Amino acid sequence: MVEKIPLFVGVDGGGTTCRARVFDEHLNELGHATAGAANIARNTESVLNEIAHVIHASLQDAKIPTHQRQQYKIHVCAGLAGFKVRAAQHALQMWQHPYQQLSVTTDLTAAIWGGHNGHDGSALIVGTGSCAAAKYGETITQIGGHGFVLGDKGSGAWLGKKALQVTLLSLEQYPGAVPRDFSQAIIEVTGCQTAEDIVSQFNNAQPADFARLAPALFELAPSQKNAAALISEGAEYLSVIATQALELSGGNLCLAGGLAESYRSYLDPSLITRIQPPQQGAEYGAVLWAKSQA
After folding, report:
1. Domain 121-276 classified CATH 3.30.70.1490?
2. Which CATH architecture has domain 5-117+279-293?
3. Is residue 169 a contact partner of residue 177, using CB atoms and an 8 Å limit?
4. Phi then psi dihedrals of residue 205, to 5 deg
5. What is the rounded CA–CA span in Å between residue 278 and residue 275?
6. What are the residues facing 5 on neighbouring strands?
7. What are the phi and psi torsion angles at 24 (to 5°)?
8. Each residue's pLDDT tens digit, 148-157
9. Which PANTHER family match (predicted)?
């Protein structure tokens, strides 16, 4: 019997973007791909399709077409937003996937393993959601990251929702509401004209839809105190959970997520000297974590 060639596909599934990278047994990268949102706790069926799509596309990029994949032992190692939700874990257990092995953890675990290349340290993830974590030995401690409905303060989704809430108050001329120039800027970003338009557009929106407003707030912040105030409120929370994570790990802090660098200058100054660039990405980290569990 011909022994199959081992391949590892690392997946980083966030609330807005899902990325996959293909590695050989020595962890040399062979290919990569990007797809849409992959919070496994939301719209589980469509997220599983998105994950399958990005894995397929990354294997194609690695020059491994479908008809040749029987020659390989494919181990998918995924770090997914929403994985801590029990219903999401059950859905993954029931998933009829074609891969020889599937190992799944949280996107935070993948980020911290990649960011510190398997060593102890802390991570602050700020994208559609937000959370911090500490790795000390084999123990990962998560702080925050309770999802859009109950938590994720400082995240892109949180910023977008807060901006819309104060904009609605301004449009209705609520006493003490934000000035018209702020609400007008938010209206222009959404493409809405009235309060009714905003409610119609965002009444059933996903966290990623709210998060798309966050970059506009960072652009407004230097000249608009209300935007700066929202960001500062988020940064205060993020600084606290990052500090807690550092105390637990005793290492340094790496930043991850689409808004992490935008927040850097707003974080508590005591954190700046502890921040270091991620040594590896979360896709690599998911593979490192999976190999440590073998």
Report:
1. no
2. 2-Layer Sandwich (3.30)
3. yes
4. -75, 155
5. 9
6. 72
7. -85, -175
8. 888 899 999 9
9. N-ACETYL-D-GLUCOSAMINE KINASE
